[in-house]
Each structure stands twice: as C-alpha cells, then as structure tokens.
Amino acid sequence: MSLSLSCACGAKFEVAETFAGQGVACPECQQPVKVPAATGARLRTSGYALASVVLALVGMFTIVLPALAVILGICGLVSIARHRGRVAGTSYAVFGIVLGLVFAPLMLFAVSREEIFDQFREKINTGKADFSGPLEIVRAQEGYAITRPSSKWGISREWSGEEGVGNLMLVNLGKDAYVQVIREFVSGTATLEKCRDDYVASLRDEPKFAQINEAKMPVRVSHVSLRESKRLPAVNGAEVMEVLVDMRFAGHPMSFIVRIYKRPRNGQAYVVSAWVWQRRFAATEPELRRAIDSFRILQN
Known about the structure:
single chain, 300 residues, alpha+beta, Protein Transport Mog1p, Chain A, 3 domains, 3-stranded antiparallel sheet, 6 helices, 32% helix
C-alpha cells in the first residue's frame, strides 16, 4: 500500500506506507517532505498465532497437536515481525508456544510410561472385577481350573457367570487384557478344525458389545483373520489346538491367542481365549500365555 504526497514545488509522488511518520526527499527539487503518520489503521491478528493457541488448547492431551502449536506460534512471531504495524497477536503466539512446549513433552513422557494410564484405568474400573480369593480358580461343576497370572488379574463381574451357570472371564483392568473360558458341547464327530472354524466364525458373525457408561453398546467387528493354527499334544485325553487370530474391534486392531480342548468321548469342548489391543500384545503376551498354560481339565 502507498501514500500520496505533494511537495511545495508542485510535484506529486507516492511513497511506501512503511515511510509513514518519516521524512523523504522530493524527486523533483530534492527538498525534504514529511510523510504523515499512519492513522486509523486496523491491526490484523495473525492467523498463525490464533491457530497456535487453538491447537495447544484442543490437543493438550496429545503429542502431535501441541508440537504443531509450537511451529505455528513461531510462524506467527515471524509474520508479526515482518509486517510490524499491520499484524498483531504476539501474546497469542507466545501463549501457544508455551503451552505446546509444556504439553508435548509431558504427553510424550506419559505415553512412554504406560503404567501411568494403567494405574488410572485400574482406579476408575476397580469395582468391575473381583480380585479376592486364591490365584487358582477351580470350577468343579464346569470341569476345569485356571490360574490368574498375578494379583492384577481379577474375575470380571460384568461378563462372568457363576460356577455351573456361565463362562469365566479374567481381566487385567490396567492393561485392558482378557482371558475367557467357555465350555461347549459339540458333536462327537466334530473335528478340532471344525471347532476352530466355528469359533472364528463366531468372532466374525456374532454381535459384539462394549461397556460404555454402565450400558452394553453394540460395536462393529471387521478384518477377522486366522494368522496361525497348529495342533498341540493331547491333555488328559483331550485333543488340543492353538489358534492366533487378528481382528478389528470398533476399528482398533486386537490380537487373540486361542486354545481349543475337545474330549472325543463326551463331546465336551473348552475354548480358552486371551486377547488384548494389538499395540500391547508383545508386552502382554507372556501373561496371557501363563494364564492359558495354567488351564487344566479336571478328572471326572
């Protein structure tokens, strides 16, 4: 933007707005001409500065957004410096940068130490599992026993039935990990492969629910895939197969370890499954396998 000036010699000329309030030489007579100071100009708040504050506040419990807030805040300061007198918002830019520098490292530390979130989940969900009693759980009427991997594992109060009535669900509230035992009766001619296929089909086809605000809400299951399947040595006269399954639960990947025990004589089968979110699988797998390996069929 330029300013129009007139000299006493009659010359008319224009100068850049940046010369406002200064003196310039007339191009015709070389006499000094005073450039009027800019008046009434409205300052525009830097969009970078505003975006920095918004991202820092909205994304304070994330890592990426606070980092972006720092970058945008710096861009805002550069823009303000280059357009001094026309662009404002220094305080916004500085505020966004400070928040970003505080929350980005803080959240990075918290994520690297997942036990912080584990302890928080344990506290808010403590009433959802029973941690009393011995680690070994004996279900005499159901014909099996299984041992909790540690005292951090309890019996789910929401998904387990009483002995002789329903299934058993063990849960680690902090790690959001589960071990379930289901007793079924199958045809005497059904093979282990048929039991495996039926189980994988049940993951794919049966409705699934999540506990949200004290209510069980249906969720979408997709991408169910059989990653590995192998037979294991027989246990107490029961054929055994181990299966590894991956799937997406409400869009989030999960990994399963499944052991299927089938007793040919009475058509009784047990499905022992353990699962956790895929990103936690490597760290939690030893505990899941300890629980599965502890499963034993009681002698009739």
